[in-house]
Amino acid sequence: MSDISRSLYTPLSTAASIAGGLLAGAVFGQIWKRVGEAEPPDPQDLKQPLSAVMIAAALQGVTWGIVRAAVQRAGAHGYRAVTAEPPPT
Fold first, then answer.
1. Angle in degrees, 0-180, between the axes of helices 50-83 and 3-35, rounded to the nearest 10
2. How far apart are CA 8 and CA 58, in angstroms?
3. How far is the C-alpha of 30 from the C-alpha of 45, rounded, in Å?
4. Using CA atoms, how far apart are residues 67 and 71, in angstroms rounded to an integer?
5. Contacts for 39 with CB less than 8 Å, ≥ 6 apart
6. Above 80 in pLDDT, residue 1?
7. Nearest Cα residue to 88 out of 66, 20, 79
8. How many CB atoms sit inside 10 A of residue 13's CB?
9. Buried residues in 48-74 as b, exposed as e (16+ CB within 10 A)
10. DSSP letters spanning 30-87
């Protein structure tokens, strides 16, 4: 792998990670609107039931993990399509 390819992959990967985080937040917000209340419970709000806080945290973690994997996978396929090389690890 050339140094140029590697140096181009790093900022693109960082930008994709940021975009993926924003996308995951938006997806979680839409899921939570359909599953729970208008806003997810704040873990520091002791008036909220523990079960609601834990369910929201678990759902947010699963959503984030799936979106992150999808974005990374798409980025790797895109990188390989452009450079004909596997992405650096």
1. 150
2. 35
3. 22
4. 6
5. 32
6. no
7. 79
8. 17
9. eeeeebebbeebbeebbeebbeebeee
10. HHHHHHS-SSPPPTT-TTS-HHHHHHHHHHHHHHHHHHHHHHHHHHHHHHHHHHSSPP
pTM score, two decimals? 0.78
Per the prediction, the chain carries an average pLDDT of 87
Q: What is the mean pLDDT of residues 7-22?
A: 87
Q: What's the first-to-final CA gap in the chain, in angstroms?
A: 11
Q: Which residue has the higher pLDDT, 59 or 8?
A: 59
Cβ atoms 87, 9 nearer than 8 A: yes
| Rg, C-alpha atoms of the chain | 18
Give CA–CA dist 69/48, Å, rounded.
31
